[in-house]
Design goal:
single chain, 398 residues, alpha+beta, FAD/NAD(P)-binding domain, D-Amino Acid Oxidase, Chain A, domain 2, eight-stranded mixed beta sheet, 20 strands, 30% helix
Length: 398
């Protein structure tokens, strides 16, 4: 790739707030801060929306995915359940943004269906729905007749589902660039191909050393997603996060017939139809991540398994051609986001989502911006402070 001339010029700049990371969280944080009149600069080491956010499938989650009950510790599962109300904030925030941004982000919120094949699975969904309702989430258990009426494309094997009316989808390839344009229109400065190499804590803020020169800032926001731990380490902060490489598949376009976000309670599957007619199929099947280069590779076994589940639940899939398969990275925490200022490093703020970063991204960004501006918080972020990790055992974080 040819680096444009402006990206080769030496950089010597200053700003009030420096944001590191050009994904959904970084761009949304810049958007909210700039609209509040804050001087803000965002740096991204490659191009915007090219890592986790740009490789995201665009699902808007609210209900808890059944797979988490199988894989998470009790502590992490409790964290996920306690974070569910923030997912509602996430969807509300995206709906607001859909009316503010300069592009159609293809947001559709017709609800999500988590389907079941057996009575045992239905009992599990009933238990899960009870936990979600206790946290203010709107969900309902529906039987086979109602499932057939809502989603006639599903297999006859499906005997019921948990329905969450607030779930949906959007297009990350349009949404994140629109956030960036909105931030720039409000006065934010966004610099691409600027890699952060080190951070020095100085009187009055920070000195950020980059591949193009130095940026001085009073406050700094770590919105680097899967790379956030390395940015934290630059100032001695240990962020207990991990990554999981997963993949998704998209089929040839067909006429619209799927209007919901579809999950399976036990099998690994998410399923939706995007605006141009393609079926987007995923759910968390593993892909390969090279830790040395961060290159990601889709795996044939995962493709075959994912597509087998998809056609098992939606028989029509068996007759469609696959158009593309790609891999991306999911960020994992203890089930909660990590948000707010770090007491040990005043002026250093964290903007790190939990799983489903596209769902939570703008809501988390807005909360971080409110905190930075000293405004009354629209949502209590105390449970999301990094302070909760003090003295925590490793087993509690996985």
């Amino acid at each position: 790739m040819t680096i444009p001339a402006h990206a080769r010029r030496p950089l010597d700049a200053s700003t009030d707030v420096l944001i590191v990371g050009g994904g959904v969280v970084g761009c949304a944080t810049a958007y909210y801060l700039a609209r509040d009149g804050v001087e803000v600069m965002l740096i991204e080491r490659s191009d915007l929306n090219t890592q986790a956010s740009g490789r995201n499938a665009g699902s808007l989650h609210v209900q808890l995915q059944g797979a988490f009950y199988r894989s998470d510790s009790e502590a992490v599962l409790a964290g996920r359940l306690d974070t569910l109300p923030l997912f509602m904030e996430g969807v509300r925030t995206w709906k607001e943004l859909a009316g503010e941004l300069d592009d159609d982000i293809e947001l559709v919120a017709n609800g999500g269906l988590m389907v079941a094949e057996t009575e045992d699975q239905m009992r599990f969904l009933t238990m899960k729905a009870g936990q979600e309702k206790s946290r203010g989430i709107e969900v309902a258990i529906i039987g086979a007749a109602e499932v057939r009426r809502m989603a006639p494309y599903l297999s006859d094997r499906i005997i019921g589902a948990e329905y969450c009316p607030n779930e949906g989808k959007l297009n990350p390839t349009r949404a994140v660039p629109a956030l960036a344009r909105g931030a720039e229109a409000a006065g934010a400065r966004i610099l691409r191909e600027v890699e952060l190499l080190g951070i020095e804590v100085v009187d009055g803020g920070f000195r950020a050393r980059t591949n193009r020169g130095t940026i001085r800032c009073k406050r700094l926001v770590n919105a680097a997603g899967p790379f956030a731990a390395s940015i934290g380490a630059m100032v001695g902060i240990d962020l207990p996060i991990s990554q999981r490489c997963v993949q998704g598949t998209i089929t040839e376009p067909v006429e619209p017939f799927v209007s919901h976000l579809v999950y399976h309670v036990d099998r690994i599957l998410t399923f939706k139809q995007v605006t141009n007619g393609n079926l987007l199929i995923g759910g968390g099947w593993p892909a390969h991540l090279d830790p040395a280069t961060w290159s990601m590779t889709a795996l044939r076994d995962s493709i075959q398994s994912n597509m087998w589940v998809a056609q098992f639940i939606v028989p029509r899939v068996a007759h469609l051609r696959l158009m593309r398969v790609w891999a991306g990275v999911n960020l994992r925490t203890d089930g909660r986001p990590i948000l707010g200022e770090v007491r040990k490093v005043p002026g250093y703020h964290l903007a790190i989502t939990a799983d489903a970063g596209m769902s939570l991204g703008p809501a988390c960004a807005r909360l971080v911006a409110e905190n930075l501006c000293g405004r009354k918080m629209s949502y209590d972020i105390t449970p999301f402070s990094i302070d909760r990790f003090d003295g925590a055992r490793p087993s509690q974080l996985n």
